[in-house]
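Intended use. Records like the one below are meant for learning the mapping from a protein sequence to its folded structure. Do not use them to infer anything beyond what is encoded.
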Amino acid sequence: MICPTAILKEYLIGVLFLQEPSGSSTWPVYSQSLPDGDSIEDDACCLFDVVGDKDGRLMTGTFIQHFGIRLKIRSKEYQDGWNKINAIAEDLDTIVNEDVVYDGNTYRLHNVSREVITPLGTEAGTKRRWLFAVPFSVTVSRIV
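Structure written out for the chain above:
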C-alpha cells in the first residue's frame, strides 16, 4: 500500500484546500518536510507520518490499522493559518468512505479522526511565521 500521507494529500488537493508545490501555488502541501527558502511560500503546509494504532484483528486474520498523520500549517498571518487548519480539520471530520484515486489505484478513506488543533507559536529562525498542528488517525484501504 502507498503511504497514507500521499492519499490524504491527494484528497486535500482534490477538494481544493491545498495545491501541489509550484512557483505560483497558494497553500502548497508537502510531504514529510516543510521546506524554507526564498522561492517557498510563507503560507504552506506539510503532512507527516507519525505513530499510528493497531486496533484489533478481524476473524479473517487481518488487523485494522489506523495510520498516524500530523498536519502542520505555516502562515505569515496568525488568523490565516488558524482559518486554514480549522477548515481542513472540519472537512476531514466529515469523511466517511471517501474514494481517492492516486497513481492509478483507488483507495478508500474510511474515516479520519483528529485531536485538537495546537497553535505552536512562531517559527524559529529569521521570519516571523505562525505554526499550527493537528494530529489525525486515518483508516485507509486499497480498493481492489
